[in-house]
Q: What sequence folds into this?
């Protein structure tokens, strides 16, 4: 009896590459094989081991139906970290690394420095900062208990014991506490924005994407609440939509921030606005 010889890995990739993005196919085949995408290059002519073609086909099918690659593999690289992600968390974006860079540059080199990441999701921002600065106390909050479970698992893998996770809305779990730097990548898409019904965004938690009629509801809460949670001279850094820079700067001005500026992402689009709370306005450096 004749049996069809198994296809090579390369043949599987080529067939899938006609249906989905060839790079996505590479990630999915590596995941199905339990290997890295790099491994595939060295093993392109290998015959697919039993079961692999079927496992891969199931993933290609789901990707073709729209599911994000990161949810299919359960992983996404961010900063220097390989993070677990689930549909309970936003998929970390490269532009958020800009927020991490700007936050790191503003963390004082002193004793007892404190950093907060609000709406941490997978823990991306908090864990990147914790990994770079083991002298800084890092607190991360999220309103989603399911997201915090993912973030805690990422902390165990990347920075065990370094981040204190708190469950609750924005500043709610931080009553009476102050920080040197507060950062957030909040939801900032307008609730009726058509993009929410397109592409990968359809599969991400809407609580992490959409925020009121103009997308600024969460940002208004964050800007209004930050002054009483920042130490004197402390910084607030917020990621936002590329057309929201002027509005976020105006909100910060209205709440007494100084040194307000907007930074652009790699695509030269406004992406992060930051401001500093006046030396008199903030709490004493020793507080909370
Ligand atoms: N940057 C994301 C997007 O537009 C949105 C993430 C967010 O709302 N924080 O796809």
A:
């Amino acid at each position: 009896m004749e049996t069809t010889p198994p296809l090579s890995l390369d043949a599987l990739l080529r067939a899938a590459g006609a249906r989905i993005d060839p790079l996505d196919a590479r990630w999915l085949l590596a995941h199905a094989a339990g290997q890295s995408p790099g491994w595939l290059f060295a093993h392109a002519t290998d015959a697919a081991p039993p079961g692999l073609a079927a496992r891969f086909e199931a993933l290609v099918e789901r990707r073709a139906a729209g599911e994000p690659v990161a949810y299919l593999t359960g992983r996404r690289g961010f900063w220097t970290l390989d993070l677990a992600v689930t549909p309970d968390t936003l998929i970390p974006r490269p532009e958020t690394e800009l927020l991490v860079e700007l936050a790191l540059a503003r963390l004082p080199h002193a004793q007892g420095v404190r950093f907060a990441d609000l709406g941490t999701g997978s823990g991306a921002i908090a864990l990147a900062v914790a990994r770079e600065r083991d002298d800084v106390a890092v607190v991360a909050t999220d309103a989603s208990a399911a997201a915090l479970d993912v973030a805690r698992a990422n902390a165990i893998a990347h920075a065990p014991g370094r981040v204190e996770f708190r469950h609750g809305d924005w500043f709610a779990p931080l009553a009476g506490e102050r920080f040197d730097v507060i950062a957030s990548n909040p939801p900032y898409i307008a609730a009726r924005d058509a993009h929410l019904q397109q592409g990968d965004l359809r599969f991400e938690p809407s609580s992490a994407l959409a925020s009121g009629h103009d997308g600024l509801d969460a940002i208004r809460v964050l800007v209004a609440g930050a002054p009483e949670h920042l130490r004197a001279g402390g910084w607030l850094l917020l990621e936002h939509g590329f057309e929201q820079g002027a509005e976020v700067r105006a909100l910060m001005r209205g709440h007494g921030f100084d040194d307000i500026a907007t930074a652009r992402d790699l695509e030269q689009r406004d992406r992060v606005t930051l401001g500093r709370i006046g030396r008199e306005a903030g709490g004493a450096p020793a507080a909370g």
